[in-house]
Amino acid sequence: MSFTTAIAADPAYSNVSVQAGPVVAVAVAEPADIVFTAQNYHDVHNVPDIDIAAFNKSVFNALKPGGLYVVLDHACGAGFRRP
């Protein structure tokens, strides 16, 4: 169990949910205070046939007014390629 799913499973954090896996849109049962993603936003661009603008719009639509969309990510250096 990951740290995030452990938090979501704790009854003290009953308002926390985890959405994991390949998604083309974010959907929540009720508006969220925050949507947080770490070290994987760059991979969203690799989802076949994804409309990035529509994906981001789905995140913002999932938020309460004044909610936060937090993206923690990285970029490789110029000319870097995976083997």
Description:
It is a single chain. With 83 residues, this protein is of the alpha+beta class. The chain contains three helices and two strands; from the N terminus they run αβααβ. The protein has helices at 3-9, 41-44, 52-62, and strands spanning 32-38, 63-72. It has a two-stranded parallel sheet with strand order 1-2. The protein is globular. The model has no long low-confidence stretch (mean pLDDT 85).
**Unreliably modeled segments:** none
Strand/helix succession: HEHHE
Please summarize the sheet with the most strands. Answer: 2 strands, parallel
- Give helix % range: 25-40%
Total strand count, please?
2
What is the beta-strand fraction?
A: 15-25%
Mean pLDDT, rounded to whole units? 85
- Overall structural class, as computed from helix and strand content, comes to alpha+beta
Spatial order of strands in the largest sheet: 1-2
Q: Regarding quaternary structure, how should these chains be classified?
A: single chain
Shape: globular
* Straight-line distance between termini: 30 Å
Radius of gyration: 15 Å
Instruction: Note the total helix count.
Output: 3
